[in-house]
Amino acid sequence: MELTLLFLIGFLSLFIGSIAYSGVTLPRVFGSNMVLQRDMQVPIWGWAPPGEEVTVTLTAEAEEVEPVTTTAVANTDGNWQVKLPAMTAGGPYTLRITGGNTLELTNVLFGEVWVCSGQSNMEWPVSISNDSEAEIAAAMYPKIRLFHIPKVPSGLPQQDVEADWYETTPETIPNFSAVAYYFGRKLYKNLDVPIGLINTSWGGTLIEPWTPLVGFAGVPALASICEEVEDIQTNYRSQLPEKTNAIEAWVAETRKALEADAPLKPMPDNTHPLTDQGRPTALYNGMVHPIVPYAIRGALWYQGESNHQDGMIYHEKMKALINGWREVWGQGDFPFYFVQLAPFNYSNQDRGQFFLPQIWEAQAATLALPNTGMAVTTDIGDPRDVHPRNKQDVGRRLALWALAKTYGRDDVTYSGPLYKSMAVEGNTIRLTFDYVGGGLTSRDDEPLTWFEIAGEDQQFVEANATIDGNTIVVSSETVANPVAVRFGWHQSAEPNFMNKEGLPASPFHTMPLSER
After folding, report:
1. E strand or H helix at 79
2. What are 454's strand-pairing partners?
3. Helix 391-401 and helix 178-191: axis angle, to 10°?
4. Which of 383, 299, 312 lies closest to 339, judged by CA?
5. 3-class DSSP state for residue 250?
6. How many CB atoms lie under 10 A from the CB of residue 30?
7. If residue 357 lies in a helix (H) or strand (E), which one and from where to where?
8. DSSP assignment, residue 417?
9. CA nearest neighbour of 477 among 498, 462, 499, 496
10. Does the pLDDT of residue 7 top 70, yes or no?
11. Is 75 helix (H, G, I), strand (E, B) or coil?
């Protein structure tokens, strides 16, 4: 009971004064076994008594490398930060942080660091994915390091998380994100540098909780969300004086009750209105903000199932997420690669069957943002299961984008065909595509599936689609004057159209949204 009281008194200190640090401390994202981002300055930050000088020294454990030392002074709030100079890939290093005390982090590597986030398909672990037994047994990659952030929503930005870095072994990999691991493994095998994977994901969550306020503020279409969060925060702050007075009075009463062995009263409620995993900013605050501005190469995102009825507004929400993360990290337009949802039967209602294609369209539109990429999964899903077990190909396809666009591999085909343009030719429509790779083909050598064509009445019918060089010619005997084509436009569509590198085409609709 006394321990509980001490915890609550500590909780109260968040509201009645700044935290007093007895020595130098670090957020948990800095720890032994971590990977620091190579080839860029690396922020190292933490807390110490105000005015205390903090010295950070990086020493090679085996190589003949001169130590790197930098210093900072904790400000009046006890915060300090230094930046290590850009380092090439390698290690191990020891990182020593010294003030009134000394912290020592060992087995530190420099390599490539990626943040991996989203809902259940990103969270989905290796242990219940395809070939899990063999994959776990083979997971001996000491230079692939794992950092798994626990599920903690918060109404206010948090400073730390309860997590540690681990080497990849058969013991550490089973409960880690399968998509993240297979992505990291592909990079490791191709780049031959250490890989750091930070998994921060939560099944069943919307995109809004993962988005910082600055992200919403930058997208006019989401002004109502921004205003909602700002109003809640303003009201919460205005209520704090009364709430803290009540808590202080409760602490005094509780101390007396403990001394007298008298009955205890419950602590006054101080729950933040946004402390719920479904509320805007809540997961950013609790599960992303604590690792900002840890130096990273880029981010992966696999989410959308919980927003599958959003339509094109999901594109606006993706803009808020991506631009928001880039803003708070301060690393410019870092790579942001995401997964286009797999087919799944969300609804048997006529209208419901087209919710998912509209999300596919919103995701594809997000490729207009700089330095983004999209892994298409229409051929590796399961319309009966929202959690397809083939995570190997998902991770591999994300890695192809990274290898080509981030790491400059010009011998890598990284996307399947993406719709580019159409032209009416008599009673047919000719389609052109980006990312044709080595050519267009059918996955099963059967006629192309899931193409539909419509005339001016916009009534789509099943169409014949034939490959003509790097184009597709679409027609139907029942449509004499075609005006539009759509492809894969159904939640259960698993089309066979791909390029010769085996990467599937993304679903599309040629008619502008405003004309439908």
Report:
1. strand 79-84
2. 484
3. 50
4. 299
5. helix
6. 19
7. helix 355-365
8. -
9. 462
10. no
11. coil
The neighbouring-strand residues paired with 83 are 43
* Dist CA 430 CA 453 (whole Å): 11
Q: Model confidence over 90-143: pLDDT tens digits?
A: 999 999 999 999 999 999 999 999 999 999 999 999 999 999 999 999 999 999
Three-state secondary structure call for residue 438: coil
How many degrees, rounded to 5, is the angle at CA 409 between CA 408 and CA 415?
100
- State how far the Cα of 512 lies from the Cα of 484, in Å rounded to an integer: 9
**Coil vs helix vs strand at 94:** strand
Query: pLDDT grade, residue 349 (50/70/90)?
Result: confident
DSSP annotation string for 280-329: TTHHHHHHTGGGTT---SEEEEE--GGGTT-TTHHHHHHHHHHHHHHHHH
The residue written with tokens 């903090």 in the block is 54
H-helix or E-strand containing 394? helix 391-401
Is the bond into 92 cis (omega within 30 degrees of 0)? yes
**Continuous H helices in 150-194:** 178-191
For the entire predicted model, the pTM comes to: 0.95
Nearest to 378 by CA among 399, 363, 365: 363
| CA–CA distance, 339 with 458 (Å, rounded to integer) | 30
Tokens at 404, concatenated? 């080509």
CB 354 within 8 A of CB 490: yes
- Give Cα separations from 136 to 73, 85, 131 (angstroms): 45, 36, 9
**Tokens at 320, concatenated:** 């808020």
**DSSP string for 457-515:** T---EE-EEEEETTEEEEE-TT-SS--EEEES-STT----EEETTSPBPPPEE-S-GGG
- What domains, with CATH codes, occur in the chain? 418-515 (2.60.40)
